[in-house]
């Protein structure tokens, strides 16, 4: 895959963004979805579609006590599982996908969550986003997860102009060093929840405001802070 050509000045700007993210949020890698093993994270990530991680964690706290194995999920009654995950939204599709996904893990992958993206995306309910969560958090395989925060803030930072998550993923893979991929996801999600919120971004409080291409802080104020 050809690497996107960027200017020296842009490379320096991106380097500064990553340095400040590391300084503010450290380089620690942590997953916001509670889990004890790979298949629990896979199910939690399926549940996280159009749902907050906090809500998923509330649901899985009891869910993983009730369904203690892949076999429990594979043999679950869909109507009952729908009730168990109702508050995560889109519960009918999610319940159906979880049952089909766990059955395929048992029959095709010997009960193991696969590592390669082709096998992962062959599972019901698993797209590139979910696959990359597994690859990054379970197998430490450098990957970029394009969720709503990463999509929105990466565009604000001028790292992509696309709307399609897969194209955004490719853009970020081109401009970000591979060693930063996993923690960039986590850092940007944290930024999106605390400062660069969708409804009311706190640009004046943001440590990246002087590097952001869509900051609401007036240019002259940003320049004066850099002086």
Automatic annotation (TrEMBL):
Q: Which cofactor does it need?
A: [4Fe-4S] cluster
Binding residues for [4Fe-4S] cluster, per the UniProt record? 196, 203, 206, 212
Give the note describing cofactor binding and stoichiometry.
Binds 1 [4Fe-4S] cluster.
Keyword rRNA-binding found: no
Record keywords: 4Fe-4S, DNA damage, DNA repair, DNA-binding, Endonuclease, Glycosidase, Hydrolase, Iron, Iron-sulfur, Lyase, Metal-binding, Nuclease
Pfam family of this protein, just one? Answer: EndIII_4Fe-2S
Q: Which InterPro entries match?
A: DNA_glycosylase, Endonuclease3_FeS-loop_motif, Endouclease-III_FeS-bd_BS, HhH-GPD_domain, HhH_base_excis_C, HhH_motif, Nth
User: What range(s) does the HhH-GPD domain occupy?
Assistant: 47-194
Q: What is its EC number?
A: 4.2.99.18
Q: Give the UniProt record's GO annotations in the biological process aspect.
A: base-excision repair, AP site formation
The entry's family comment says:
Belongs to the Nth/MutY family.
Record protein name field: Endonuclease III
Source organism per entry reads Mobilisporobacter senegalensis
Instruction: List the gene name.
Output: nth
